[in-house]
Amino acid sequence: MSTNDGPATEAPFDARAEARRLLRTSRWGTLATLDRRAGGPYASLISFAADVDGAPLLLISRLAVHTRNLEVDPLCSILLAQVGAGDPLLHPRVSLTGHAEKTEEPRARRRFLACHPDAAFYAGFADFAFYRMVVHGAHLVAGFGRIVDISPEDLLLAMGEASGLLPAEEEAVAHINADHADAVALYATRLLGRREGSWRVTGIDPEGCDLALEEERARLLFSERVTSPAELRIALQQLATRARG
């Protein structure tokens, strides 16, 4: 499995992998809700993060029109698009459909703020709340002939046998950023070809880890799926060895 977080150019096209990459590296998206007054679609710009299984996480204010719409009808859609040079329509994007549910799960708060540190300033305001999207389906457009419908089962990670990894994620992220910052930088620069800088890990899941430097986001895949803290340590050590070699 490749560790490159960009679209594959030589390997066969993998729609599931590309959609998952967009989920993990997108910070902003367009949220479409049903207008509670007119009944038609209402689109707005939102900040975006992914839960450990890839499900969308939102931090939105009840003062916003889209939040009031969701309180009446939780059905919604989110468009995530990769921004780059040239024609925007030539870049990959994925549309997610589902419904939004308010969540007080501490992991949702932690993972969202890891992706959007500046949001910590207003995350505690009384009118703000975290929401998790229950995905019903996805539609990927990744270029000519690469238009694919993706089921929730193929888009999101199954966490069953990897449930032991969940309680260890927060400590693992803190540990690697505090004690192995040099390895994280090598992951980004030598394994992913990204620019030099103080890269940090924002999240870990069975398939890989998410990296951040200022406004940039990158996705690093493990060679094998990890389901426990012990397997995670081995996977990170293997990546560090590759990066240093």
UniProtKB/TrEMBL annotation:
InterPro entries: CREG_beta-barrel, DUF2470, Haem_oxidase_HugZ-like_sf, Split_barrel_FMN-bd
Domain DUF2470: 170-238
Pfam families on file: CREG_beta-barrel, DUF2470
Domain CREG-like beta-barrel: 17-154
GO cellular component: cytoplasm
Protein name per UniProt: Pyridoxamine 5'-phosphate oxidase
Taxon lineage: Bacteria, Pseudomonadati, Pseudomonadota, Alphaproteobacteria, Hyphomicrobiales
